[in-house]
Amino acid sequence: MKARRVVITGISGLVGSHIARRLEGRCEVIGISRKPGKISKSILPEAFDITDSRALVSFLERTEFDALINCAAQADVDRCEIDREEAYKINTEAVAVMADFCKKHKRLLIHLSTDYLFDGQNGPYSEEASSNPINYYGETKLEAEIAIRSSGCAYIIVRTNHIYGNLPDGPSRLVRWLLENSEIKAASDQYNNSIWAGSLADSVIELMEMDFRSVVNIGGPDYLSRYEFAMEGAEVFGIDKKRVVKSSIKKLGLVAPRPLMAGLIIDKMKQILKTAPVSVVDGLKKVRDGAL
Ligand SMILES: NC(=O)c1ccc[n+]([C@@H]2O[C@H](COP(=O)([O-])OP(=O)(O)OC[C@H]3O[C@@H](n4cnc5c(N)ncnc54)[C@H](OP(=O)(O)O)[C@@H]3O)[C@@H](O)[C@H]2O)c1
To answer: How far is the CA of 12 from the centre of ligand 1 (A)?
Structure first.
């Protein structure tokens, strides 16, 4: 689909902002978040809370668009465990409203999902693997996928995993994690294939433009533990590697349980997409050099 107008929710976030920048000049972009901030002059910001379903539907009804790319989420996994009501409203209910709208008005819904649908017993996971979330974030994201499929709308579900990159308004979470801690504690027992937000955004746009429909995994080429990832980060950012301390998910004492052998098999993505995601080392260099 050569989209003329695209709505992106989560415009101020990691994924939404990267997709928006890449669509600039190719089509008109309308960006939603509670505090959209300034991404660029040509992106039209709309400030509202997507959990206000009346505001959401009224906005969608008065806006002309071809595709709705839903990058809004409560993506803080521990916060989802603590404030379940908020997590459900953002990650599931609002998505169901978008899917019903897209079905009724024949629009394409592109939705970002996660490897946290799986329990992490035997990852990485294919598109066909059986889901079994072990935290509330994963439950809300699984229910959103179910709502999209059962709505009957035209959809692309992009399952991805740990994303790193720069935010539009300042240093990325990754840079802060690496630079602001004297000790960088990283789990050596949690694995996935992290992806640079720019590569993910390129893939989402290619999927939209090639008329793909269904579920696809989009992940990076390197299957690493968080500890190995942090060591690569230390190398690229010139940080003393002694500051990276090997830990475990148990020792980190996080609120929500994490799937350990997580991540995604990316064979389907490799077959259908021309864009190949960059390696962790190259992605980290892009982050270091301020790429958006
Ligand atoms: N980050 C990862 O490692 C990761 C891994 C796998 C999958 N994913 C998925 O990828 C997608 C994008 O994640 P991300 O990392 O870009 O998230 P993010 O950086 O935390 O951005 C989330 C965006 O959602 C907006 N938002 C949150 N609640 C909202 C509400 N009630 N109403 C309107 N806007 C709201 C936020 O803006 P305001 O706060 O201004 O409203 C922000 O723009 C999500 O579906 C996430 O589940 C992320």
So the answer is: 8
| Ligand 1 center from residue 90 Cα (angstroms) | 9
Banded pLDDT at 88 (limits 50, 70, 90):
very high
Find out whether the beta carbon of 87 lies less than 6 Å from any atom of ligand 1.
Answer: no
- Total domain count, the chain: 1
Lowest mean pLDDT among 126-140, 173-187, 225-239, 265-279: 173-187
Taking alpha carbons only, the member of 108, 104, 128 closest to residue 118 is: 128
Residue of the nearest CA to atom 41 in ligand 1? Answer: 34
Q: How far is CA 286 from the centre of its chain?
A: 18
Residue 76 resides in a domain:
yes
* Domain, as residue range, for 148: 5-165+194-221+262-278
Reply yes or no on whether the pLDDT at 171 is more than 80: no
Pairing state of beta strands 108-114 and 224-225? unpaired
Counting atoms of ligand 1 from 1, which one is nearest the CA of 36? 40
Q: What percent of the chain shows pLDDT beyond 70?
A: 100
Ligand 1 pocket, 72 CB below 6 A?
yes
Query: Global pTM?
Result: 0.98
Question: At 120, which CATH number?
Answer: 3.40.50.720
- Residue at 15 is within a domain: yes
Q: Which of 192, 258, 202 is nearest to 222 (CA)?
A: 192
29: in domain: yes
- Dihedral sign (CA 218, 186, 182, 137): positive
Residue 12 lies in a domain: yes
